[in-house]
Design brief:
Radius of gyration: 30 Å
GO biological process, one term: regulation of DNA-templated transcription
Strand order of the largest sheet: 2-1-3-4-5
Strand content: 5-15%
Organism: Methylocella silvestris (strain DSM 15510 / CIP 108128 / LMG 27833 / NCIMB 13906 / BL2)
GO molecular function, one term: ATP binding
Number of strands: 14
Keywords: Activator, ATP-binding, Cytoplasm, DNA-binding, Nucleotide-binding, Phosphoprotein, Repressor, Transcription, Transcription regulation, Two-component regulatory system
CATH architecture of the largest domain: 3-Layer(aba) Sandwich
Main location: cytoplasm
Distance between the termini: 50 Å
CATH topology of the largest domain: Rossmann fold
């Protein structure tokens, strides 16, 4: 899902022009004609979240500074980019002091507007990621910090929230990398044991003897040789056992006693020891099938399966991919000291189309690599060559080394067309059938773009296009822009433009 920009301006022409420009950047847009309407939209329940506010400072009733003050009073601070005129730059400085991230002077060029919005979104994503990391480190975070929208993940979160309010064991099932440990940490943080130890044991790849040592510790001849195990470390808190399906039958029996009786029987201890531990387990294999195959104890399975939770794979949670990717990008860019706006619209489409067999963990790795080797301000499909090679419609060609010897023409395989990464304002020279477009069409499109870009300022349009004003008027009439021009031109010039066009029409 593309970032959503709320454009707040009392001038309908300014709202329309800003919305058209911003949509060309690949963002979703909404508009509000007053400060009060903007606040009502931001507080509306069930509406899509607004990722950034493009806010005009000069409005009747509630102006831009008033909107910022109201948002701060409500402890709601979406990233804000303010718009002002050249004569009111002092007000923009006040807005920055009040909490706005950036300002643009009307009429802002598309490049300046894109940079301001991109920087605002990037900074907001970085701040959100840092807040999430701080909450995770302190144990004060919620399920909302980890999980997005979607029927399956919402069902899993509801079960996890209910499980967090009890002391019963929890079993989380799901594929490798689907976020099972993350969910276990969220359950611990939402329980009455938050702030106490959360201890993890990962069983995959461990021998039975090593699992036993890690769980129950080591006992030696002297106190200095005695090492507490994970169970002792987790006293008063939660013990998370990942891939519990890999436990040996002996360890399953000893773990059953912990779950059933709340006791630990140390092999060298004189008697069982009481344990105050919340057990959370996960498995990437079907446990009931292992029970049928007599590879997992049935009694332990039903003790663990009180609150079964399924963590759905990422391919069934595609709406979350963009948010996860932007969060990873913000974190890795900050660690690398880079300034990145995040994945482009084309890159988001690519990432959303991929099935991610290793789920969130694989996405995190892909984003780490892309950020490490990124050279531009945005991550494009060129930064994900391995992913693009596996998704139809994205063919990313990697150029050969400069000193590589050319191969004979006969040995070269037919080239597939490379992925075309275009600026939304670029002029297409090829039509859908693969033929060159006619000069008349290109000229009309260039004039239409200039009309919006320079907001109907005819002298500047003519100068930048390299033609005279009378020629420009005539061509606009020929291409049918006469009726559209007054709505697209700046308010103080639309009347003069209409008169000029009428005069040109009469002269013709």
């Amino acid at each position: 899902m593309s970032p959503r920009i709320l454009i707040v301006d009392d001038d309908p022409l300014e709202r329309q022009l800003a919305a058209e420009i911003i949509r060309k950047f690949g963002f979703a847009t909404e508009t509000a004609d007053s400060g009060e309407a903007a606040l009502a939209r931001l507080k509306s329940a069930g509406a899509a979240p607004v990722d950034l506010l493009l806010l005009d400072l000069v409005m009747p009733d509630l102006d831009g500074l008033g909107v910022i003050a109201r948002l701060r009073a409500q402890a709601f601070t979406p990233p804000i980019v303010v718009q002002t005129t050249a004569s009111a730059v002092d007000a923009a400085g006040a807005a920055l002091g009040a909490g706005a991230l950036d300002f643009v002077v009307k009429p802002a060029s598309p490049e300046r507007l894109k940079a301001a919005i991109g920087n605002g979104l990037r900074l907001a994503a970085l701040e959100a990621e840092l807040r999430r990391a701080a909450r995770q480190a302190s144990g004060h975070f919620s399920f909302a910090d980890y999980f997005g929208a979607g029927e399956e993940i919402e069902r899993a979160v509801r079960l996890a929230e209910r499980a967090a309010k009890t002391a019963m064991p929890v079993l989380i099932e799901g594929e490798e990398g689907a976020g099972k440990e993350t969910m276990a940490r969220a359950i611990h943080a939402a329980s009455d044991r938050r702030g106490r130890p959360f201890v993890t044991l990962r069983c995959a790849g461990l021998a039975a003897a090593d699992m036993e040592t890690l769980l129950f510790g080591e006992s030696g001849a002297g106190p200095e040789s005695r090492r507490p195990g994970k169970i002792a470390e987790a006293q008063g808190g939660s013990l998370y056992i990942a891939d519990i399906c890999e436990l040996s039958q002996n360890l399953q029996a000893r773990l059953l006693r912990l779950v059933r009786d709340g006791e630990i029987d140390f092999l060298r201890g004189p008697r069982p020891v009481r344990a105050d531990i919340r057990l959370i387990a996960s498995t990437r294999r079907n446990l009931i099938e292992r029970v049928k195959a007599h590879r997992f104890r049935e009694d332990l399975y039903y003790r663990l399966n009180v609150y079964p939770i399924f963590a759905p794979p990422l391919r069934r949670r595609r709406d979350e991919i963009e948010g996860l990717a932007r969060g990873f990008c913000a974190r890795f860019a900050a660690e690398a000291g880079k300034i990145l706006r995040g994945p482009s619209a084309e890159a988001v489409s690519l990432l959303s189309a991929y099935d991610w067999p290793k789920n969130i963990r694989q996405l995190e790795t892909a984003m780490f690599r892309a950020v490490a080797f990124a050279e531009g301000a945005d991550l494009t499909v060129m930064d994900f060559p391995q992913i693009a090679a596996q998704v139809g419609g994205f063919d990313v060609r990697i150029p050969p080394l400069p000193l590589a010897a050319p191969e004979p023409a006969a040995a070269l395989a037919p080239e597939r067309p490379a992925a075309e990464i275009r600026d939304p304002n670029a002029l297409a020279l090829i039509d859908p059938s693969g033929d060159m477009r006619r000069l008349v069409e290109l000229e009309a499109e260039a004039i239409r773009f200039a009309l919006g870009h320079y907001r109907g300022r005819m002298s500047k349009m003519a100068k930048k296009l390299g033609i005279g004003r009378s020629t420009l008027y005539r061509k606009m009439k020929e291409y049918g822009f006469a009726d559209a021009a007054p709505e697209e031109a700046a308010p103080d010039q639309s009347g003069d433009l209409r008169q000029d066009l009428q005069r040109t029409d009469a002269a013709a």
